[in-house]
Specification:
Elements (H helix, E strand, L loop, with lengths): L2 H14 L2 E2 L4 E2 L3 E6 L1 H6 L4 H18 L9 E6 L7 E7 L1 E2 L9 E2 L5 E5 L11 H5 L6 E6 L2 E5 L3 E5 L6 E2 L10 E5 L5 E5 L6 E3 L2 E3 L1 E4 L4 E4 L2 E8 L1
Parallel strand pairs: 3-4, 8-10, 11-12
Antiparallel strand pairs: 1-2, 3-5, 5-8, 6-7, 9-10, 9-19, 11-13, 13-14, 14-17, 15-16, 15-18, 18-19
């Protein structure tokens, strides 16, 4: 987990959660960053200064985009034991400052926690000049589960109970390596069964392998998630 990567994702979440008013565009002013216990331990000694640095980065990003903030952006680190080393989650919130002295700030609805993996893909080298000429479309798979979203970089991502999977599901009906998401050169994604016990369903239909579209509902074991694609 690199601070520069974290700053980019925070700015991305600011862009994604802007709210247009009559003449202004408001963005969240509270950002909670969830880290694994090991990543959080690495920040010991400079966590507070990093929070301030990221706050300044978001403030400058808002100025460049002409966003309106109700208060200076606040960034806070917390530990989430469900995250693995290199993963981090971001949750945003728009908090209105108190109108009268002594009044508690009014907090808006919390958004989904976006879970990112810091592991970067290494695209395979083209086998011939024709392949080099083809531009590879890089997209990310988004798996939405209740209040959490996993952003999977690809080109392959395993879904299962194993802690080694890119998307870990705590479901006893899910195999350790249940299914795999695969991205094509065109940026499309497919899901393939990896020989699981209970199989997979897409929009209620049992499949062994199929192309996925944004909005598809995928069921593995007894867990259903919403699939999306992020450019």
């Amino acid at each position: 987990m690199q601070p520069v990567e974290l700053a980019r994702k925070l700015a991305k979440e600011m862009d994604a959660h802007k709210t247009a008013g009559v003449a202004r565009v408001y963005v969240p002013n509270e950002y909670t960053v969830f880290l694994s216990s090991k990543d959080r331990a690495k920040l010991e000694g400079y966590e507070r200064s990093l929070e301030q640095e990221l706050s300044g980065y978001l403030l400058e990003h808002a100025r460049r985009r002409s966003y309106d903030l109700l208060t200076r952006p606040a960034v806070e680190f917390k530990t989430d034991q469900r995250l693995r080393l290199g993963e981090f989650g971001i949750q945003t919130r728009l908090v209105k400052p108190p109108v009268r002295e002594g009044e508690a700030p009014r907090q808006g609805e919390e958004g989904h926690t976006m879970v990112y993996s810091a592991v970067k893909e290494k695209p395979p080298a083209p086998a011939n000049p024709e392949q080099r000429a083809e531009a590879m479309v890089v997209t990310r798979a988004v798996v939405s589960l209740d209040d959490r979203r996993y952003v999977l970089e690809g080109p392959r991502a395993t879904i299962g109970r194993s802690k080694q999977a890119e998307c870990v599901l705590a479901d006893p009906n899910v195999s350790r390596r249940h299914a795999e998401l695969r991205r094509s050169q065109t940026g499309d994604w497919t899901i393939a069964d990896l020989g699981s016990t209970n199989g997979i369903k897409v929009n209620g239909r049992r499949v062994s392998s199929t192309r996925l579209s944004p909005g598809d509902q995928v069921t593995v074991g007894t867990t259903t998630f919403l699939f999306d694609i992020e450019q």
